Amino acid sequence: MTFDLRGQAAIVGVGSSAFARRLPDSASSLAAAALRGALDDAGLHRDDVDGMITHMGTPLGVDYDQFAAYAGLNLRYAAQFWLHGRFVTLSLQTAAMAIACGMADTVACVTSVKFLSVRGALGGEGDHEGLREGGGSHGEDPAFGLTSPGGGAALFAQRYMHEYGVGTEILRDVVMSSRAHAALNPAAIRREPFDWEAYANEPGFIDPLRRADCAQINDAAIVLILTSADRARDLAKSPVYVRGMQGIRGGPDEFIFAPRGFGIAQQGVTDWPAEKGPRQAFEMAGVSNADIDGFGTYDAFSPLVIGALERHRYCDPGSAHRFIADGQIAPGGSLPVNTSGGLLSEAHVGGWNTIAEMVRQMRGEAGERQMPRADLMHWGTMWGDSVILGNEA
Asked: What's the predicted TM-score (pTM) here?
């Protein structure tokens, strides 16, 4: 027996702090500012919130119990996940399921980050998380020397370039599309003009990645508020419904920075037919790729955009680079991607800034970067998870 979650919950409030490389505020203060903004956006009071999902704990962010006390929230449902972008979907899913099951009426999804204040470089000696020493899940595969997430993304890019006979222009085009979106976004950190020469002059990171291929490290907070579809219709803003969703994939042939069976880290080299790809979110939402107006994805590294487009069937394997080079993901393209600039150009908030942008696009609040049509938006990552949002339940 299955439970129909389609359209049972809706996003009704969006709030954010300022985005900057360094901010004087504490993680709790940033999260509180974002929470106030989200409550005001929804026309709600903090006493209306009885559920909370935190997508990052201390020391980088806020723990659910401490932040509930700090913000004066009285919760009957709470959960907490790691920051990493693979858990954006899980957080939204958990909030939607809690509402649909009656475990909470109104849930705040809270993410706050203070990257530079409390953490040095990812990877290498002393990175307990990267070495899987009880510090979280961002050691992609330390047995293969991949203690930094950039290592996995670089391996995927190298293999993709070899497999399909392309060069680093495939990465440059992703970055240039991201900067083109960010140039229209006053909140973005990286808004300066960017061209091929600027990309070529960027310092190297892990071959073939350059600095511009990597998300920025910054301080920021985002809060999204979800409630039931019935209640959402009576609130201040037009609701954005959770139409479809599916979870993170795992297994011997899964690696978060490469397509399934692509031969990276522990993966085998397996020809997985496209029809075996994850489609649960589309089936739940009752839509197809052709219905989607815009796409959001976790772009901590530029190669991830290429992999996500192919995994979710917007492009055939080995063809996403041509789709991107033709301008299809840039402003005015057939499938705008990460229209705020994403992690590469707007800010690194674990992917939540992109979800917030999708909601603003669907409500017609994106200003100069507003898409002409934004009725259905899809968040999907390289590792297979998805959320499809719609203006109708």
From this structure: 0.93
